[in-house]
Amino acid sequence: MKYIDIDFNNKTILITGATGFIGSNLCFYFQENFSEAKIIALDCFRSGETFSNGNLKSFGHFKNLIGFKGTVISGDINDKEILLNLENEYKFDYIFHQAAISDTTVSEQDLMVKTNVNAYEDLLKLAIKHKANMIYASSAATYGDASSPQTVGNESPNNVYGFSKLMMDNITYSYLKKGLDISIVGLRYFNVYGPKEFFKNKTASTVVQFAHQLLKGNAPKLFEGSDKILRDFIYIEDVIQANIKACSPKKSGIYNVGTGKARSFQDIADILQKELGTSFQTEYIPNPYIGQYQFHTEANVQASKEELGFEARFELEDGIKAYIPEIKRLFEQEVK
């Protein structure tokens, strides 16, 4: 589906974080719908390096781009030489900035801010020089424990990741005051799930993690009180829709990308059991993230509808059903 009337053929598009979850889906969206688009896929790929929490510093994986025919560049967005080369060697029409440290449990505040905040401003300056519309990943983590529905302007991040995304948004607002020739849109993703998230490991959605527990013959493990932990879960295809519609906004700014409907983790487990034909008794475990955890998220999407023309098409049941074939493929090829 093309979502808007822009013809991206013969346009040069930079996608950062291109071997990650959303970045790789964007690469294939353009490849499949606009065969003449020139896609530059930038990613630092994964290595064995880890943060102090034991998680990988980069979740990007080459398997997410198998079949991709565009240009792939291995590089870190913190590397100013890489950015200078991009500035000199290409003339971008659109920049989709998805690269980030997205692990909310990372405690290295200095690296989080350097990567998420400072590198974003460097890329934004590149976009301005090239007169390229900028679409970037913000996050619902900016809201912290703010009451639902979460609304732009009512932020209270409770971890450094959410703080870093809010600082990115503040940079956006400051640049928009300058009356630029480009549009800048920050998209606050809520809980995204769907194909190509598997290599995020422990930070992949509960949808794929629960499903693989079930396929292994194990009961789903949920935090205690999961029937009361509500999140706005949004399917990857709707996130791609939002990114494409953000290429031509009525107004630049920061917008929520969610369904506008809160659902529980218990709902996910129940829908998966139905789709996979299992009937295990759910196991409940203590929540170790009290104080760093959002217990209720629900996007206020009114502005997203009005200014982007965005509205989620997938209910949780629809998204999980569409995801099941890929979940089963991953289980057979990557998990077993």
Largest sheet: 7 strands, parallel
Strand element count: 13
Rg of Cα set: 19 Å
First-to-last CA distance: 34 Å
| Order of helix and strand elements from N to C terminus | EHEEHEHEHEEHEEEHEEHEHH
Query: Could you estimate the helical fraction of the residues in percent?
Result: 25-40%
Strands side by side in the biggest sheet: 3-2-1-4-5-6-11
Please identify the structural class as seen in this structure.
alpha/beta
Number of helices: 9
Q: Beta fraction of the residues?
A: 15-25%
Low-confidence stretches: none
- Report the principal-axis shape: globular
Mean pLDDT: 95
Summarize the structure.
Helices cover 36% and strands 16% of the residues.
Q: Could you please describe the fold and organization of this structure?
A:
- The chain is an alpha/beta fold.
- The chain contains nine helices and 13 strands.
- The strands form four sheets. It has a seven-stranded parallel β-sheet, sandwiched between helices. It has a two-stranded parallel sheet with strand order 7-10. A two-stranded parallel sheet has the order 8-13.
- The model has no long low-confidence stretch (mean pLDDT 95).
